[in-house]
Amino acid sequence: MSHVPPFTPDPRLFPFESKWFESSAGAVHYLDEGEGDPILLLHGNPTWSFLYRGIIIRLRKKYRCIAIDYPGFGLSARPENYGYTPGEHAEVVRDLVRHLDLSNLTIMGQDWGGPIGLRVAVDEITRLRALVMGNTWFWPLDSWQGKTFAYVMSMAPMQTQVISHNFFVEKIIPFGVKHRLPDEVMHHYREAMPTPKSRVGAAEFPIQLVHATSWLAELERDVQDVLPNVPLLLTWGLHDPMFTRRFMERFREVFTHSQIFRLDAKHYIQEDSPKEIAEAIDSFLSSPVGSAARP
């Protein structure tokens, strides 16, 4: 592998074996821990597979936990000829799913991991067992919170803050958790984006909230057509100022077999409530709903 990761995670916080997939966009880092039915864990912005460490440690005793870093995030390569769009990320994730030939698959997505994961779920429906979604969406963003965030973060001054001063890591992550993250945890988010050049993917995601409108519109139609009978667990942080309960209810309008597990958490639910999420996923996949064959 010619790609050199930006840093080496502390094995005390990240006690996993790094694996690599040579995608069409370059070297992609992922984790593949445990045995059993696979669970694919998809991050949002500006996070990476590190976000899921507390969930993987708890679930790998019973499930095969796979967590990928999209190109431009975490330990993956930063390709020059890559647009960092959700559509491109979904293609990379889909290619990994096919490469690993996963079946009876549960996909979990949070933040941008939701639409990316649901695109993969639609495209690979024959592999799918269930879905877990938390503080995310799958339709063209129409809330005032989302539109305001997209508008402000896409403006030149804020793009400069993201690229030059790592605004997403330094400000958005601390704002998106209920309790202050330890310095060693923040270090792992900072070191994954150590230079302005390494933050291009993080800067592009808020732009895509608007630019990906047609992609999201197509995704919404496909989710409604293909996925409504797939068992869905919603693990939802109730204190997220952007992805409010209204987003959660919109999922329930589409999916006929859904359960809700409410979390005392903000946006980054994996940091606030890893134990609760892991227990909820295990309980869901062990239940009649989560283990039922799709009609």
How would you characterize this protein structure?
There is one protein chain. The protein is an alpha/beta fold. It has a domain at 19-145 and 214-291: Rossmann fold (3-Layer(aba) Sandwich), CATH 3.40.50. The protein has helices spanning 53-59, 86-100, 113-123, 144-154, 156-165, 167-175, 183-191, 200-211, 213-226, 245-254, 269-272, 274-286, 288-291; strands spanning 19-23, 26-33, 38-42, 64-68, 105-110, 128-134, 232-237, 258-263. It has an 8-stranded mixed beta sheet, with helices on both faces. Strand 1 (19-23) and strand 2 form a beta hairpin. Helix 1 (53-59) crosses helix 12 (274-286), helix 3 packs across helix 9 and helix 4 (144-154) crosses helix 8 (200-211). The protein starts with 18 loop residues before the first strand and ends with a helix.
Topology, element by element:
Elements: E1 19-23, E2 26-33, E3 38-42, H1 53-59, E4 64-68, H2 86-100, E5 105-110, H3 113-123, E6 128-134, H4 144-154, H5 156-165, H6 167-175, H7 183-191, H8 200-211, H9 213-226, E7 232-237, H10 245-254, E8 258-263, H11 269-272, H12 274-286, H13 288-291
Parallel strand pairs: 3-4, 3-5, 5-6, 6-7, 7-8
Antiparallel strand pairs: 1-2, 2-4
Helix pairs in contact: 1-12, 2-3, 3-9, 4-8
